[in-house]
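Worked problem 6 (solution included).
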Amino acid sequence: MNYIYYLKIIISRIVLIMFGVICAIILLEWYMQYLEPPYQQNTNPGLICSQEYGWRGAPNYEEVLNIENYVHWVRHNEYGMHDTTKVMAKPSNTHRILILGDSFTRAHHVQEFETNHQVLEDKLNEHNVGMQYEIISSGVSGWGLTQELLYYEQEGYQFEPDTVLLMMYMGNDFSDNLPGRKVTIGGKNCYIPYFMLCDDVLDISAWYYAPPFRPTLGKCYWHEKLFSNIFGTIYQYSQLYNNIEPYLLKRQESMPDPYNINFYEFYRPDDNELELYLWDLQYQLLRKLHAEVTEHGSQLIVVLIPRPDTLGYALADYETRQTLHADKPIWANIEPTLPHERIHQFVTEEGIPVLDLQSQFIAHIRRTDEQLYYQLNWHWDVNGNRVAGRIIHEWLTSNELLSQ
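Solution. The predicted structure is:
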């Protein structure tokens, strides 16, 4: 009888303690609403946090930008795209092209009518009779293949595209799939969901990142995923969690970063363990996107976008390269076409048409000596967007890839 009595007392006290803890958390959450956000910077204008993708374009956003003295208006449509107004239902007698990509696809460095996607749409309709071509540019700054795949799965397919054009930037697109990638918006870090390889097999359900937790790459322990998804979801809504995050990260900052990788590593023939993991992950994400696009009755096409520095290196003569090697020895082992060739080979074997803009840009620059990138911003300027749109148009039409 005494045992039951004491058990009731213990249970009642535990309930009271839990109630007190919950009340304290609620009060702290309320109090945190009145404090300054933990981070003051805003990584990228025109973006908002998104539970589904980490971040996305802000709907109906508009701003005047000054990029290397080119002052221009940037306006988003109702879907947060740097594009004209769109409707979800595809108009009759229309061939729709959905473009997936990052800041090169968003192309906020120029006005909307100067973007590569608008140049492409105008060229497709220039001498066309009957069938109309409509391009939907869903590119968002900082997106990698993970976010582009998630977007297609949840929203992109609803536009009923006949063709899906994946624009891959051969710079940070490989490391963009790592856990913990973020942008800072409104004083808050917005982390991407991410996919994991579990013993070389893709886990098809996305994980949520919970700072400062770092999952074990290549192994999908159930408790790690449960912990990550629970606390990753809480992080998205908890002001308290957001405000204590900088203190949680302090210890992490003093430790080696297991996800730290430089883009140069992908331009060298010898792969380390992290590179092999990221290559395999990129391949499997591409294969998954291809399968889903095909399942919806559409065609996937890949376009490879070169980095301006590796493009310049490929164009450089022997003396210029030797000078660069002396100044920056890391370039001595660089093969400027290596990742292009690896992606090209993989997608070709998968039956996906692929256009490598690096070889096309090299031929164009040698012929015209034109500048295609901003000098400091490293994105296409007005001329770069125009040339890219024209090259893509010529390649699509000459290979009859839109004949369906």
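Discussion: The longest strand covers residues 94-100.
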